[in-house]
Amino acid sequence: MGRTKFDFEGETVIVTGGSSGIGRAIALEFGRAGATVLNADIRATSKDVDAQTPTHEAIEADGGTAEFVETDVSDPDALAAVVERAEEIGVDGQNSTARRTSSPGVDVMVNNAGVFVREEMLDVSIDDFEFIHDINSKGVFCGCQVAGQAMKDRGEGGVIINTASISSTHAQKNQVPYDSTKGAIRMITRGAALEFAEHDVRVNAVAPGHIATEFGAGAEKKEQAVVADDLVKPIPLDRPGYPEDVAPAVLFLASDQAGYVTGETMYVDGGWQVF
User: Fold this and answer.
1) Angle, CA 136 vertex, CA 164 and CA 205 arms, to 5°
2) What's the pTM?
3) Choosing from 178, 242, 260, 267, which is the catalytic residue?
4) Which of 19, 22, 29 is nearest to 52 (CA)?
5) How far apart are CA 58 and CA 47, in angstroms?
6) Which residues, including other chains, have CB under 8 Å from residue 88's CB and lie 6 or more apart?
7) Whole-angstrom Cα distance, residue 226 to residue 8?
8) Among candidates 15, 53, 10, which has minimal Cα distance to 37?
9) Nearest one of 190, 135, 150, 152 to 168, comparing CA atoms
C-alpha cells in the first residue's frame, strides 16, 4: 500500500480542541508535516491517559513549532484572538522563512472542539441543549466566520475544516442534542463553502464514526464503548477507529491534493454509515 507524506512547511494551522482525542492527533500530524500549530483549547492538559505531555510541547519535542492559546470556542472574541495570534506569529518571523504565502496569517483552520451529551430527549434540559450548541455548532460557525474573514482580508485563500460526525446524517438513540449540532455543522460547512469559494477559501468537514477516545466515554471505557456500539450495528472494517485514522483525512482535505474539493463531508467511520 502506498504512503502519503504531507508538507505544510511554513503554514500556520489552528486546531480547536487540540489537547485531546481527535484534535490532538490532528495537531500532532500537522506538526510532523512542518506546520506551525496553534492549539486553541480550554485547557492545555490532555484528557487522554496516554498523553501526559501537552500537545504543543509534544510537537516542539519532535522538532516542530507550536503553542497553546487558551480558547473558549463559544466566545467569538476568543476565536478572533487565536486568528490574530496566527497573524502575529508570521510578523514575529517564527515561521516566515519557508512561508508559501506572502503575508502572515492562518492558512488552515480546523474547527474541531466539541462536547457530548447522551440523554433521553424528554430528560434534556434547555441549559444542556444550549450548552452543547454553544460549543459544537456556534463554535464551528464562529470559527468559520473569523477565519473566513481573515482569509478574505489577506487575499491569499485558505482552508477551513470542520469536525462533523456520522451523527450529521444518522440519528442515534439518546443523542438528539449532539446529533442536531452535528447536522448543523454539516450545513454550516456547505453554506460556508458556497460563500467563501470566490475568495479561494475551501471549506470541508470530516465525519468520524465510533472513534475510541475519551470523548463521552472515559479513558478506561473508550474501546469498550466502540465495541458496545458495534454490537448494535457492525463496523464493516471490523475494528474500532482511532484518532490517528481521522487526522490524515484532515491533512488531505487541507492539502493541495484536495484543491478541487469544497463543501464535502468525508466519512471516516470504517464503513459504518454505508448500510
Assistant:
1) 25
2) 0.91
3) 178
4) 19
5) 15
6) 104
7) 32
8) 15
9) 190
Q: Rounded CA gap, 241 and 20, in Å?
A: 15
List, in order, residues 6 or more apart from 234 with CB less than 8 Å away.
Answer: none
Buried b (16+ CB within 10 A) or exposed e, 150-176: bbbebebebbbbbbbbbbbebebeebb
Taking the C-alpha atoms of residue 139 and residue 135, their distance in angstroms, rounded to an integer, is: 5
Question: At how many degrees (to 10) do helices 126-135 and 137-154 cross?
Answer: 20
Question: In sequence order, what are the residues at sequence separation of 6 or more whose Cβ sits closer than 8 angstroms to the Cβ of residue 204?
Answer: 159, 160, 161, 162, 189, 193, 253, 258, 261, 262, 263, 264, 265, 266
17-26 mean pLDDT: 97
CA–CA distance, 218 with 157 (Å, rounded to integer)? 39
Strands (E), the chain: 12-16, 36-41, 65-70, 108-111, 158-163, 201-208, 265-268
Dist. CA 154–CA 109, nearest whole Å: 14
Residues forming beta bridges with residue 111, ordered by sequence position = 162
Closest CA to 59 of 40, 32, 41, 96: 32
What pLDDT, in 10s, does the model give residues 223-248? 555 555 544 578 899 888 999 999 99
C-alpha cell at 201: 477559501
Model pLDDT for residues 125-176, shown as the tens digit of each residue: 999 999 999 999 999 999 999 999 999 999 999 999 999 999 999 998 999 9
Active site residue 260: no
